[in-house]
Amino acid sequence: MRIGIVGTGHVGGTLARLFSRAGHEVAVANSRGPDTLRGFAEEVGDRVRPATAEEAARFGEVVVVSVPVGRYGQLPAAPMAGKTVIDTGNYYPERDGNDPDLDQDRTTSSELLQQHLPEASVVKAFNTMRWEHLGEYGRQSSAQRRYGIPVSGDDVDAKRRVFDLIEQVGFEPVDAGRLAEGRRHQPGTPVYLADLSGAELHSRLGTP
Ligand SMILES: NC(=O)c1ccc[n+]([C@@H]2O[C@H](COP(=O)([O-])OP(=O)(O)OC[C@H]3O[C@@H](n4cnc5c(N)ncnc54)[C@H](OP(=O)(O)O)[C@@H]3O)[C@@H](O)[C@H]2O)c1
After folding, report:
1. Which residues contact 65 (CB under 8 A, 6 or more apart)?
2. Structural domain boundaries of the chain?
3. Which residues have any ligand 1 atom within 6 Å of their CB?
4. What are 125-138's pLDDT values in tens digits?
5. Which of 5, 8, 11, 195 to mutate to test the pocket of ligand 1 (most atoms within 8 A of CB)?
6. Hey, which of 14, 97, 153, 182 would disulfide with 124, CB 3.0 to 4.6 Å?
7. What is the architecture of the domain spanning 2-205?
8. Given the DSSP bridges, would you call strands 62-65 and 2-6 parallel, antiparallel or unpaired?
């Protein structure tokens, strides 16, 4: 599959490694331009190419958005229309600036991204685990213990696509419900940064 990654920092860079290792073609972008990602792409291997955000979004059949939540308004919407967009974002007001709707839990950061990308299918995933653990724990999974990744989204087909990608990189996808339910796996919740198995996640989320 072709995957675009918009935001190639700690999390986006880790996902670029995981997805390319799983056999996908990956275009990576940041805010400073492709030249600043050439070294990274060379280090990770042939399946990774540097791009602008616009190009990465156009390239991907699935697009990962992994930028600070305060930057969502800067992202190119047109090339993500009709696509599955994975949102790894977490709202940190000290970094992102205060948003009254988020502060008072009237909405969630993923729903804000969905508003900015009205024709995309936003799925929240890969947001609960520290990037170093994300890079390692999939490979450490065993039949006895597989780490879980909560997933929320409104589009069932888009979610299924994300479930498949999560499985391919060694984790267990855990359906947390609709996009608004992303509030149950955001900072401050009992599953956030908790490194749980799929069964433990289901138990804390109260999902079947
Ligand atoms: N760190 C973690 O362990 C962790 C775990 C789970 C979820 N998260 C969440 O995932 C998101 C990314 O976190 P991170 O730690 O990977 O952040 P990071 O290391 O600071 O990386 C952010 C990336 O976003 C890029 N970016 C910023 N504005 C952009 C724009 N307008 N267009 C394109 N790219 C842009 C940055 O590019 P430049 O460097 O060129 O500016 C950088 O590549 C955040 O919402 C974070 O809260 C983080």
Report:
1. 6, 7, 72, 75, 85, 86, 87, 88, 89, 113
2. 2-205
3. 6-12, 29-32, 53, 66-69, 71, 74, 88-90, 127, 130-131
4. 999 999 999 999 99
5. 11
6. 182
7. 3-Layer(aba) Sandwich (3.40)
8. parallel
